[in-house]
Structures are given as C-alpha cells and as structure tokens.
From TrEMBL:
Record-linked Gene3D superfamilies: Glycosidases (3.20.20.80)
Superkingdom: Bacteria
Organism: Epilithonimonas zeae
Entry protein name: Agarase
C-alpha cells in the first residue's frame, strides 16, 4: 500500500508521541522561565537523530509586557516605511539614525529587508510536476508568490532566488544577487588534484584555506563579478553577496606554512608576512596567537580588496553585503575579521545556526568591531509534523509548524533588540524533496520551507510570521524604549 504525504505526517506524529512521551513529560515539568514570563515553551532537538529534546523559551509579540500590537505604517513601492525622510539617492544605502541602523530605500524611507532565501521553484521531478499543475508558467508563479509574500509581511528575496523572474514582475520584491568568484575558482583549481583534494574542510576547500593569494583567482574575480553589470541601474536590487561560508579559520597562518608547498603563492606570501613581522627567518614555532589573529585580518583583507574593487568597477550603485559568515568559533568571534569587514562591507551578512536565538553580547561585538550593520541571511527550524525525515541541515527540529512560527517570532524579537540588525532571510522558500538526489547532502530531506514540495503552504508557520512581520517598525520603537 502506498502511503501519501498526509498519512506519513500522522504516522510521524504518532511514532514521535509513543517514543518520547515520558521524556517530553519530564522535560515539560522542568520549564520555569517560560511560565514565569508567560512566554511559550517549545521542545526542540538538534536534528531527527538527536534523542535529547530540550525546552526553550519562545517569545511572541502578543506576550511582550506592555507591547500594544498595531499594524506598521504605510509602505512605499519598495517596502520602506513612510515615516521619517532621509536622503534619497535612487538606490539602497544605510544610515544610522538615533542610534539604530536602517537600510534607506531609493526614496529615502527607512527599510528592513524581510526576505525568503532560495525563492525558486524546486527542480525535483515531484516538485516540477506539482509546479506545472498549480502554476503552469514561471510568470504565473512569481506573480502569485510575490503577492503572497507581500501579503504576509515579506518584502524581499535572499540568495539563490530566481532573479530573472523576480525582475520581470510588475511589482518586484527587493532582491539580492550572489556571485561566487572563489567557488568558481575552486571548481577549476581542484582539477589539478584529479577532482579531489588530499585534505579538505567541510566547505570543500583544500586544507580549509581559500586561495586568495593565487594570481589565477584574480581572473575569476573579474570574470564572475563582471556579470553584475546588467543589474547596476535596477532600483529593486538591494546588493551583492560574494561566495558563501568561506573558511576564515583562526589558524590560517599555520596552515599556509604547514601544508602548502614552498612554491605555492599562499606559502610564499604567508612566509614573507611572518618573516617581516618577526624580523628574521621565522618558523611555525615562532607563531603566537596575536600573529594568528593579525594574519587572518591580512588574509581576509586580500579577498575583500579584490572582490570589492571589482564590484565598484562594474556597479558603483549598490550595496556590498559581504560573504555570508558562518563559523562561530572562527570568523564570528574574531575582531580582526570584523574590523576588516567594516572597511569594505556596507552590511555584514551572517548565516546564523547552532543557537536557539541570537545572543545580545555577540551581536554587540559584531557592531563594535565593525562599525557596520548586519543582516541574517540564513536561519530556520524544521517541524516534525511535516512527515519529512529532517535529518540534514543545521536548523533545529521542533514538533509542529506553529512552533516553527513561535521560533520565528522569538528570533526576530531578539534580532531587533540589537540596533544593528537591518534584516533577515528565512532559509528557505520550499522544502527539500528526499527523492531529489541532485542536491547537496545538507539540502536533502528537511522541512525548511514555508511551502512543501507540493506547493502547499504551512499556514500555522506563515500566520505567525505575518503577525510579527506586520509589526516590525512599532516593535523596533518599543524595544528601543526599553
């Protein structure tokens, strides 16, 4: 007998209840913080293979002490709030006003980018069949989904979205573009090693190093970034990302000297840097933690100089949104990396995983070290009532779609407590299809989307998203008054 999607969901919930009833009951009784503050208590685990469910507090705006919910001010065609007026330049920019950072839209109004990443129809056979049945054409799809997203308080699209269809829309979402000069270079570089490096980190880079010192990389910088020229006059473009989650490891100096051959550009540059710093012929044992941190700044700045020069060459009008930091024990706690980022990025993009909610001291460090605002460009949680395996990806697992919505509200509240946050992109538009083997492993079998593979909306999630999306301006004022 063939089991359909709904039956799978019911079976998943029954199995979950039987296997975990005792554990969940015990953990529920231990929740005190949520009950004391009248917030929601949500049980979550790291993924479907983690047996340990833990209780977490989830704040929603209806339970914030003293907050009176009211729909945000009217917005203009970009989604900017028709409140105070700042300088209008015809393109998006940033400005700090009364201590809070804002994106300023082309008309000069304050703007928060509320986006969904990978706004693109899935390419599995199941997803394509469902798409053809519901939408028939890409033009119908983008028209309906743009209207749907705006109705639910979103105004933008994150990385890997269908830019051509978005731009063809009568009333486009504010979109972003990602180009991958280092990723494209790596695809060519690995061919010298017969398609496989002897040692690589999880992002696939040899010895966890990006090849910023290679002269060949410069060619790929120009080749890939030259493609942005066609967007340079588009007012609905927020800005550009370059690459994604590159490994800016803390011990990059050691790795360059320990693993690379002495005739490789990375070794030559790292050796000269260390010799000049020590005023002698220096070796690995001479390296200190201060050397390591300063070298990461030099190493990262080499990448920054190259990509930003190319962006300004081909499009001087739009924002540079960075390279989507990710690693909390490397770049996300490295002051030198953020100091350099502040020199070159207009907004610092960060993919936020492994924490239930943003932590204010960390957000404060990012702003203090860089002097720039930030945008969260990936984050999500997965619902076990979806019927999907939910074994892959970095997002948390919760039990229901409503709890995914609570997670969204809680996360946004914590982001807005920081006066440096100018937006967020939920990852992603559509669920993974477990039958699709054309994707990378991290996007294989999980409930990440606001819509499933059959193009059915997760209404309890979306309803909660809409509630807070429609209150962002007022909520920021409420939080600023605390």
């Amino acid at each position: 007998m063939k089991i359909n999607f709904i039956q799978k969901s019911v079976i998943a919930l029954i199995t979950l209840s039987i296997n975990n009833y005792s554990e969940l009951k015990a953990q529920k009784s231990s929740i005190n913080q949520a009950s004391e503050k009248n917030y929601h208590s949500v049980l979550a685990r790291l993924n479907a293979e983690d047996s340990l469910w833990k209780p977490y507090v989830a704040k929603t705006i209806d339970r914030l002490p003293g907050y009176q919910s009211s729909k945000d001010p009217a917005t203009n065609k970009f989604g900017g709030y028709k409140t105070f007026q700042l300088e209008a330049t015809g393109f998006f920019r940033t400005e700090k006003k009364d201590g809070r950072w804002w994106i300023v839209d082309p008309l000069g109004n304050p703007f928060i980018h509320k986006g969904v990443a990978v706004l693109n129809p899935g390419n599995s056979e199941n997803q394509e069949n469902a798409f053809n049945e519901k939408y028939k054409t890409g033009e119908n799809w983008i028209a309906k989904e743009t209207k749907f997203l705006k109705k639910n308080g979103f105004n933008g699209a994150g990385a890997w979205s269908n830019i051509d269809l978005i731009r063809s829309s009568a009333k486009p979402l504010v979109y972003t573009v990602i180009v991958s000069p280092m990723g494209t270079y790596k695809a060519e570089h690995i061919k010298k090693y017969n398609g496989k490096y002897e040692e690589a980190g999880w992002q696939g880079y040899r010895y966890d190093l990006v090849m910023v010192f290679d002269k060949e990389f410069d060619l790929y910088v120009d080749q890939e970034i030259s493609k942005i020229f066609k967007y340079k006059d588009d007012q609905f473009l927020l800005g550009y990302f370059t690459d994604n989650e590159l490994p800016w490891v803390d011990d990059a100096l050691d790795r360059h000297l320990k693993y690379l051959k002495k005739d490789e550009a990375g070794y030559i540059v790292a050796k000269k840097w260390l010799d000049d710093r020590k005023h002698k012929n220096a070796f690995l044992e001479d390296i200190t933690d201060a050397d390591r941190q300063d070298f990461t700044g030099f190493y990262f700045e080499t990448y920054m100089k190259k990509v930003t020069a190319a962006i300004k060459k081909y499009d001087p009008n739009h924002l540079y949104l960075g390279c989507r930091f990710n690693q909390e024990l490397d770049e996300l706690d490295n002051p030198k990396i953020f100091e350099v980022a502040g020199k070159y990025m207009d907004i610092i993009s960060i993919n936020h995983y492994r924490k239930w909610e943003p932590e204010q001291p960390i957000l404060s460090n990012w702003m203090a070290w860089s002097g720039k605002p930030f945008i969260i460009t990936e984050w999500y949680t997965k619902g076990e009532d979806s019927g999907l395996p939910n074994k892959t990806g970095a997002g948390w697992n919760v039990q229901t779609q409503k709890e995914r919505g609570y997670f969204y509200q809680n996360f946004v509240i914590e982001l807005l407590k920081s006066k440096g946050c100018v937006g967020w992109h939920w990852f992603r538009y559509q669920d993974n299809d477990p039958d699709n083997r054309k994707t990378d492993y991290s996007n294989r079998d999980s409930n990440k989307g606001i819509i499933n593979s059959a193009y059915q909306y997760y209404r309890p999630l979306i309803d909660n998203m809409k509630i807070i999306n429609d209150n962002i301006y007022g909520l920021s004022q409420y939080l600023d008054s605390k």
